[in-house]
Each structure stands twice: as structure tokens, then as C-alpha cells.
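Annex B. Sample input.
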Amino acid sequence: MKKVALFVFNDDPMCFTHVLLNTLDMHERGYDVQVVLEGEATKLLPGLENEKTATYEMWRKVIDQKLVAGVCRACSKQMGTQASAQKQGLGLLDDMSGHPSFAGFRDQDYEILVF
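Annex B, continued. Sample output.
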């Protein structure tokens, strides 16, 4: 099985929309795909809860299908969005000095894509 981890650092909503589209596409094609929100991308979390946004339905589908590995603990704390991550039921990743580790995903045979 193809395994892909999409690490999203960019807080550009259009970029994130394409991450969601590709996540769902890969999942439908049988990939084991996981999204990790890192850096400034964690600022997107409160807006993703808003039902009026264009990405809300896709985001809910990605969450419901358990395609989000989690959110950077350190960055979500720094950006003031940790409560939003927890409210949405997202795990806080911190295995590398408070941040998610690329190596941890590579150790599980994930190819890493960075946005």
C-alpha cells in the first residue's frame, strides 16, 4: 500500500484546499494518507470549524475518515489554536521537541510531501 503524509506548513486557504482535495483523492485510490498541520497552517484551525467556509465539508470528510494524523503541539500553542484542535478531536503531535517528526513518519514507510 502506498503511504503518504502531507505536512502542511502554509496557511494559504487555497493551498490547503488542494491538500484536502489530494488527500481525499489519494484515499479513494487506496492510499494510506495522513495530513499533519504544522507551523502557520495551524492558524487555519478555527476557520475550518466554520460551516460557512468553502472547505468545511471537505475538512469534515477528511476528519471523519480519520485522515488527519494530528496537529503540531508547539505551533498550535504558539498560534493560539490548540483549543480549536482539541475541540475538533485532533491529536497533538510532539515527538520531536514539541513538533511532529518527519523521521517518525519515514520510520512507518510514509512518503512525505510538504506544503
